[in-house]
Amino acid sequence: MRIGLGYDLHRLVRGRPLFLGGVEIPWEKGLLGHSDGDALVHALIDALLGASGEGDIGACFPDTDPAFRGIRSLELLRRVMARLRKKRFRVVNVDAVVAAEAPKLGPYFAAMKKTLAPLLGVSGRAVGLKAKTNEGTGLIGRGGAIACWAVVLLEEKG
Ligand code: MG
Asked: Could you read off the pLDDT of 40-54 as tens digits, one per residue?
């Protein structure tokens, strides 16, 4: 068994679609980033890479590389999972926390699980998602950013 931890934060700005957990959420602002800015998927990717000893998302998909400009983060996750499967890892479960003042994310968790679970090769019950506000404090509390933490458990197939 191998455990991994990932964290990511992206700024929320006007004029961008909001992608979180692979799902587009109707909102007045979206996450700024070289890719689609999906901080939840990025935190998951870093947790997966950390658990498998593969470094981090910045090393695997440099934001200086035009090939990754505007890329859907789900595509990056797909590539990371292919790499893990090649190393004979399987995901046992993942768990994540999203800190966002708005919008309310609970109504989108079912869609996120439905999107992420098949990519991770697990059932929806093995994908934990929780939303917290930042109690109005700091950049996140002012609606200027969204932060995500994710842990994953991998099993190495014998
Ligand atoms: Mg990121």
From this structure: 999 999 999 999 999
Protein residues within 5 Å, CB atom, of ion ligand 1: 8, 42
Rounded distance from Cα 33 to ligand 1 centre (Å): 7
* Contacting residues for 125 by C-beta, under 8 A, at least 6 apart: none
158 Cα: distance to centroid of ligand 1 (angstroms): 33
Task: Say how many Å lie between the CA of residue 92 and the centre of ligand 1.
Answer: 23
Residues in Cβ contact with 152 at an 8 Å cutoff, skipping those fewer than 6 apart: 3, 4, 6, 44, 47, 48, 51, 91, 93, 94, 95
Ligand 1 centre and the CA of 64: distance in Å?
A: 13
Whole domain around residue 27: which residue ranges? 2-156
At residue 141, the pLDDT reads 98
Q: How many domains does the chain have?
A: 1
Burial label, 153 (beta-carbon count in 10 A; 0-12, 13-18, 19+): middle
**Angle, vertex CA 101, rays to CA 99 and CA 103, nearest 5:** 105
72 Cα to the center of ligand 1, angstroms: 12
| CATH code (residue 122) | 3.30.1330.50
